[in-house]
Write a structure and sequence with these properties.
Elements lengths: L7 H10 L4 H15 L3 E8 L9 E4 L3 H9 L7 H8 L4 E2 L8 H11 L6 E8 L5 E8 L3 H29 L13 H11 L4 H8 L3 H14 L5 H10 L6
Antiparallel strand pairs: 1-2, 1-5, 3-4, 4-5
Amino acid sequence: MENKQQSPLSWSLAMLQRVSSKTDLNVAIANMRDRYRFTHLVFLVVRPANRADSYPFCCTTYPDEWTSLYLRNNYFEIDPIIELSRTGFLPVDWSNLDRRSSRVRDFFKEANSFDIGRHGVTVPIRGPGGERSLFSATSNLSRPEWRKLRMWSNQDIQVLSQYLHEKVLSVTELRETSDYQKLSRREQECLQLLARGLVPKRIAPRLQISESAVRLYLRSAKRKLNAATIYQAIARASFLEIIQT
């Protein structure tokens, strides 16, 4: 049963922890879409580690007709969002995508005819084994309302993208279980409080240590978890049940 007292992020992570199959993943994606009031969500594994095949798994709330057309026409070759997995690390708003090519403009025009969402944001994810994934959220809100939704959900989307990456690769067996160094008590505490929204300046007096010590513990936790970003560290620690979010 849904707990209305939980934040959308805590609620989503708790739901994802219970996921154990591909069917569960699709249900979870749909539930998260509704909770955050996006039009659609899609998670795509672009390339797993140590394997030659590309795009081995995707879970999405897009209409089946659009998904089938996309695959049939191999739109991977012209979709500018796919390029983000090769070059990007930060979330990209679709309004900033390069649409100078007529093929790209036609692609988005066709996509819009399936009502996939006028606005979107995509988070590129890179795992420790070289695997790459993309997590996208779309919306049909007005531009001002979309900006508000983006700002409100920005941190959540980054944490969820990293957690989904871990969960999807685990459920689909596209990556072997990784071993991580054990975090110290202080590293866990700092990461836990950061996950709850506290910045290092606020964490320091809570733990009665200096702000520089907090940052040192967070860097150490990120390194031990083999994470490229602090969002990835939070997601991985949550996935491994080292911290509670």
